Amino acid sequence: DTGVSQDPRHKITKRGQNVTFRCDPISEHNRLYWYRQTLGQGPEFLTYFQNEAQLEKSRLLSDRFSAERPKGSFSTLEIQRTEQGDSAMYLCASSTRASRDTGELFFGEGSRLTVL
Amino acid sequence: AQSVSQHNHHVILSEAASLELGCNYSYGGTVNLFWYVQYPGQHLQLLLKYFSGDPLVKGIKGFEAEFIKSKFSFNLRKPSVQWSDTAEYFCAVNADDKIIFGKGTRLHILP
Residue A102, SS3? Predict the structure, then answer.
């Protein structure tokens, strides 16, 4: 499968624990995005990378959230000291330099976080 | 701030009915506009996009959308829906290299 892959698909954790999600984009894609989606809402932008550089972070991304893309390939999204309000689907998407201009994103299937 | 507004949260239609889903955006610059679809149990995928040129764009599975700049709108249409069109539909705008999504419209087609 050459699409965007995310791991784990589902994570259940207790409040206060740390969690980390991983995203492997399509191999030739240089842009990688993280979104969060809750029930009844559309995907909300969190942050994005061009290669290894993090170009923008949303105000939604509190200090407890950190994202990295160390070698411009896969990315991780870590949430520290999770809260129940962090329960959501975390979506990763990637795009090529060409599709950047048209904005076509290729999404993974998401990582669902449940904080008890 | 950029935003996307979708008029209907939940639409129920019978097969063969015509569909129009409303979308308005707020962004002052040059826009790229999209409709994404999420079928049950699947990931988001692009349905169609407007980049420039002809404001009437055609996408996959018989869908089309019309960009009306004066109305800041990009409504999605399909003349005759099928049961397999049951899905959630998201309008989106590319604003400053970020894709901003609307809240989505859940479409349910009755067989």
Answer: helix
Q: Is A2 on the interface with B (CB under 8 A)?
A: no
Question: How far apart are the C-alpha atoms of B109 and B1, rounded to whole Å?
Answer: 34
Q: In terms of DSSP bridges, do strands B56-58 and B64-68 run parallel, antiparallel, or are they unpaired? A: antiparallel
Give residue for tokens 């520290």. Answer: A80
* Helix, strand, coil percent content, chain A, rounded in steps of 5: 10, 50, 45
Interface test with A, best of B98, B100, B105 (most A CBs within 10 A): B98
| B-chain residues near A105 (CB < 8 A) | 44, 46, 99
B60 touches chain A (CB under 8 A): no
pLDDT tens string A8-33? 999 999 999 999 999 999 988 889 99
Residue B24's beta-bridge partner residues? B5, B73
B52 touches chain A (CB under 8 A): no
The rounded distance, in Å, linking the Cα atoms of A62 and A79 is: 9
